[in-house]
Amino acid sequence: MAVVIALGLDYWLGEPKRLHPLVGFGGLADGLERWLNRDDGLQGAQRRGNLLQLNGAIALTLAIVPLGFAAYSLEQTLAANSVFSTLFASLVLYIAIGWTSLLQHAKAISVPLSAGDLLAARDAVSRIVSRDSQNLTEAEIAKAATESVLENGADAIFAALFWFMLAGVPGVVIYRLSNTLDAMWGYKNARYVHFGWAAARFDDLLNFIPARLTAMSYTLCGSLNGQTQNAWHSWRQQAGTWKSPNAGPVMAAGAGAIGVELGGSAQYHGQTQTRPTLGAGVEPSAKSIDDACNLVNHSLVLWLLVIGVLVWI
Q1: Which of 91, 129, 262, 294 could cross-link with 255 by S-S, CB 3.0 to 4.6 Å?
Q2: Number of domains, the chain
């Protein structure tokens, strides 16, 4: 019931426009990073790196543990009243998922791209990807958006549902906070390569099983357009070539399921990165973005059916 209510709230209300709790958490994380992301003038790269990794682990703990414990305490306090308990769980899960927001961002790219308005499509895609977008071609815009939809479907929807079903309110709270910290600190640049290591690894750990369940969901739902075999082959053959252990299976299976080829070269901060090919099929287009959204929706229906069966049993 909490899952259904949360998804209903997300569908009708979308992402909270004001006073979003994760915005406040981001401010807390910024304060922790400014306090602990320093090496205290230690000599030697190895010693500085070790200290920053330790400080990053401390920051991760300080950011997540108190809020996770608060979520657990509230859940236990409300457990005696099924109505309040369900409403509380629904509200927390609604804040944690990003289903409607993901689809809206994708639509904001695919619509102008279909109309040939590259300037509007570039502006929209720049809001959801970190790569340089000012000179992207039509196919490159579609590729960036399709990759983002497939990957964020796992992060923003299915992993949150997984941890909610497995560990309730504290589970989904800890997952969403960890994912937020990874998005803030998990960069391999001079500032975060050591400090953000703990956040990135913890997020990888929490996403390991959900990512593979998402890849399986994409593969199974690929049967709706006859692409299950392509999705399975892409997942098994290409996932390990991707730099992220969790994004690889998700994006490879997703690309195969919608019959499109992703990966390849992309510009990040003025530098070209050559990435492995994922999937097999046509060049990305506005239709690929819509197909990725449909795949996420079909996979969500599959998850709801499985959750319903598990609850019934």
Answers
A1: 262
A2: 1
Write out the DSSP string of 85-119. Answer: HHHHHHHHHHHH--HHHHHHHHHHHHHHHHTT-HH
What are 275-307's pLDDT values in tens digits? 999 999 899 999 999 999 999 999 999 999 999
For residue 237, give the nearest of 273, 282, 278, 283 by alpha carbon: 278
Look up the domain containing 23 and give its range.
2-312
The Cα 172–Cα 160 span in angstroms is: 6
**Residue 155 per-residue DSSP state:** I
pLDDT of the residue at 309: 93
Q: Where are the alpha helices (DSSP H) in 14-81?
A: 21-36, 45-78
Reported pTM: 0.94
256-276 pLDDT, tens digit per residue, is 999 999 998 888 877 788 899
